[in-house]
Amino acid sequence: MATRTDSKGRILRRGEGQKPDGRYYFKYTDARGKTRYKYSWTLTERDIPPKGKKSGPCLRDIEKQILRDRIDHVAPDNTSVLALVEKYVSTKTAVRPTTKAGYKTVLRFLARDEFGSRKISDISTLDAKNWLIYLQRDLGKSYSAIHSIRGVLRPAFQLAEEDGIIRRNPFNFGLITVLVNDSVQRGALTTNQERRFLEFVKADKHFSRYYEAFYILFNTGLRISEFCGLTIDDLDFEKGSIRVNKQLQRANDMRYYIESPKTESGERYVPMTEEVKRCFKALIEKRGTPAVEPIVEGVSGFLCLDKNGQPKVALHWEKHFQHAVEKHNKIFKDELPKITPHVCRHTFCSRMARNGMNPAKLKYIMGHSDISVTYNTYTHMSFDDVHREMLKVSDNDS
Question: Which of 8, 133, 218, 302 has its CA 20 to 30 A from that of 199?
Answer without folding.
Answer: 302
